[in-house]
Specification:
mainly alpha; Multidrug-efflux Transporter Regulator, Chain: A, Domain 2; 4 helices
Length: 90
C-alpha cells in the first residue's frame, strides 16, 4: 500500500518551506493576503522555477510573526484602554 507523502517529509524529515496556501491556512487568512505580504516584502519568500512557485521558509514565517507580536505589544503599550465616560463617573 502506497501513501502520498510530501517530498520534503520522509522519516525524520520535516519540510522547510510552506506554500502560500499552507501559510494562509496556518494564519487563517486568504491566499491573496499572503501573496500581498510576500509582494510587499513584508513576508520574505522565494520564487522557484520557471512557473514561479512561491515558497515561504518556516523560520522566516516565525521571524515575521515574532515581529508582529512585538509591534502589537508596542501598539498596546502606546494605546492603553481608557474607561468609558459613564463607567468613570460611577
Amino acid at each position: 500500500m502506497s501513501s502520498a507523502q510530501d517530498p520534503g517529509e520522509g522519516p525524520g524529515l520535516v519540510a522547510r518551506f510552506m506554500t502560500l496556501e499552507e501559510v494562509a491556512t496556518y494564519l487563517n487568512v486568504s491566499v491573496t493576503q499572503v501573496y500581498a505580504l510576500v509582494r510587499s516584502h513584508e513576508l520574505p519568500a522565494i520564487k522557484l522555477g520557471g512557473r514561479g512557485v512561491w515558497r515561504i521558509d518556516k523560520n522566516q514565517l516565525e521571524v515575521y510573526l515574532d515581529r508582529l507580536h512585538a509591534e502589537t505589544r508596542e501598539w498596546i503599550r502606546t494605546h492603553p484602554l481608557t474607561p468609558r465616560a459613564e463607567e468613570s463617573s460611577q
